[in-house]
Amino acid sequence: MQIQIFSHMLNVGDNQKEYIEEKVNNLSKYEERVADEATSVRVDVEYDTNKTDGNKISTQITMYVPNAVIRAEVRGVTIEETVDLAVDKLKKQIERYKTKKHRRDKEGKWIPESTLETLSGNSLSQEEIEQIVKRKKYDNLHPMKEQEAIEQMELLGHDFYAFVNDDTDLFTVVYKRQNGDYGLIELEKKEY
Asked: What is the CATH number of domain 2-98?
């Protein structure tokens, strides 16, 4: 497992780096593929001066495991607190990752015990663009089944997930409803 630690607006000391590496390395005991040398982990620690609730430190841990991306982001008062909370979230997501049975490989073919990393995108009015703080674009998409998209959404810890539906060949967004169920939004193709 390769671990990279990045910080923004604060200095992460050697003791804190060792603490982060120790906690992240301990995740390998939950799934052997997490300990694989192909696994890379990016840890982003950021200090946010705009937060007024005292939780000014944000830690995001993104794990690029074989055929999947697993991520957790938390806020807290200290680096150690945020790392502990993020690791707890990742433990649950790793458990979910290792129990998945049907996934696709990089060529889009079905293989057991894997997953697919995919997309997110936006198109908003000019007034709303000023409020956008992050934008992601993906151009190499492989269609996936609805259940696979739900699983990927849960692995990432998101409330929605955009993908190309394998059954309909339509751009689709799956989202988690307040009652815990899931919903789909499909964009129909129009001829202009």
From this structure: 3.30.160.100
Long-range pairs, 98-102, Cβ under 8 A, ≥24: 98/30, 98/31, 98/33, 100/151, 102/145, 102/147, 102/148
What confidence tens digit (pLDDT) does each residue in 101-148 have? 445 555 656 554 433 333 333 334 444 445 667 777 777 777 899 999
Cβ-proximal residues to 164 (8 Å cutoff; 6+ apart), any chain: 141, 142, 143, 144, 170, 171, 172
Give the architecture (CATH level 2) of 122-187: 2-Layer Sandwich (3.30)
Owner of token pair 């739900």: 150
